[in-house]
Amino acid sequence: MINIDNSTMEKYELPKLPYGYNELEPHISEEVLKIHHNKHHKGYVDGANALLDKLDKARKIGEDLDMKSTLKALAFNIGGHVLHTLFWENMAPKGGNVDGRLLESLNEQFGSVDRFKDEFTKAAASVEGSGWAVLALEKATGRLLVMQVEKHNVNVFPGFELLLVVDVWEHAYYLDYKNVRGDFLKAFWNVVNWEVVGNRLEKA
């Protein structure tokens, strides 16, 4: 038996929303936000913690695990937790305006803020199945790149700083917009917290 003590290690926790469940209405309903946060996001947090416990237990008793399936599931759940946390933070009841370095960068690299929104929206609308659209900074080149993330962990650019994310899993919008993802994406722009996005860019 291997003597490993993981009792002092922290676990993932479901973050509190920075606004009330009804404060993103009419763009995102209270019902959808409650289900999304308390059921789906919590499920990823619980899933990640359970898998970490499984790994800890296996190490203590020297048990062999199916590492491929275990680590794939762990990446899925941790990715879901991280992306959802960013998602809640980059929304607000009053989204504000694009300004500062973020405005300069979007104008320089995309041609205009509207051009960026169009490209980002098209990326989000065309994600195959369930996933995300993400605006990320690649530090080596200084480029702002839009990427499509399938599920929570496929097609991620390793090491890129994530600035803005939108969830296009059906649970994010189906009760409000049925299967019309495009209508949800139009509504999303009304609640983007540009101050948070700009601060992420400054810190990166």
Features of this protein?
204 residues; three-stranded antiparallel sheet; 50% helix; mainly alpha; single chain; minor pseudopilin epsh fold; Helix Hairpins; 7 helices; 2 domains
Care to describe what's here?
The chain has 204 residues and is mainly α. It has 2 domains: 30-89, Fe,Mn superoxide dismutase (SOD) domain (Helix Hairpins, Orthogonal Bundle), CATH 1.10.287; 100-203, minor pseudopilin epsh fold, CATH 3.55.40. It contains 7 helices and 3 strands, in the order ααααβββααα. The protein has helices at 30-61, 67-89, 100-110, 113-125, 174-177, 181-188, 194-203, and strands at 131-138, 143-150, 161-167. Strands 2-1-3 form a 3-stranded antiparallel sheet. Helix 1 runs antiparallel to helix 2 and helix 3 (100-110) packs across helix 7. The longest helix has 32 residues, at 30-61. The chain is globular and about 55 Å long. The protein starts with 29 loop residues before the first helix and ends with a helix. 25% of the residues are buried. The model has no long low-confidence stretch (mean pLDDT 94).
